[in-house]
Specification:
Protein name: Alternative ribosome rescue aminoacyl-tRNA hydrolase ArfB
Organism: Flavobacterium ponti
Keywords: Hydrolase
Pfam families: RF-1 (PF00472)
Strand order of the largest sheet: 1-2-3
Number of strands: 3
Distance between the termini: 80 Å
CATH topology of one domain: Double Stranded RNA Binding Domain
Structural class: alpha+beta
EC number: 3.1.1.29
CATH class of one domain: Alpha Beta
Radius of gyration: 28 Å
Largest sheet: 3 strands, antiparallel
């Protein structure tokens, strides 16, 4: 994965933000929409592309385009940096391969501790009973 190439391939679009904000909302295009074409990316090799298509399939369109929005701030520049960080986080998280889980055996000491606790518990319960006369 080449971050610089990926950042060059990003397309930004500024749109008027919705919601409350008075005149600022009507005048300023502060909402930023980021689009990234995963299928035609040169910053990722084919193996990474296929892996990402599986991992982030719910975030992609049918043409394998990732679209992210940000209208958290009133500043277009801040929204652009927020959406770029979010994009890089999604790509990095999508490319991390999960750690392989290896089954392990319980240690001898842990088995002995468990059996000792069971014996203590059974003694406690046995001592609760009424004595046989």
């Amino acid at each position: 994965m080449d971050k610089e190439t990926l950042l060059k391939e990003l397309n930004y679009k500024a749109i008027r933000s919705s919601g409350a904000g008075g005149q600022n909302v009507n005048k300023v295009s502060s909402k930023v929409v980021l689009s990234f074409d995963l299928g035609n990316s040169e910053g990722l090799n084919e193996e990474e592309k296929t892996y990402l298509k599986e991992k982030i399939a719910s975030k992609l369109t049918q043409d394998f385009i990732l679209i992210l929005n940000c209208d958290e701030d009133r500043s277009q520049v801040k929204n652009k940096s927020i959406v770029t960080k979010r994009f890089l986080g999604i790509i990095e998280k999508g490319l991390t391969k999960p750690k392989i889980r290896r089954a392990t055996k319980a240690t001898k000491a842990s088995k002995e501790r468990r059996l000792k606790i069971k014996k203590v518990t059974s003694l406690i319960k046995k001592n609760r009973k009424k004595p046989d006369l």
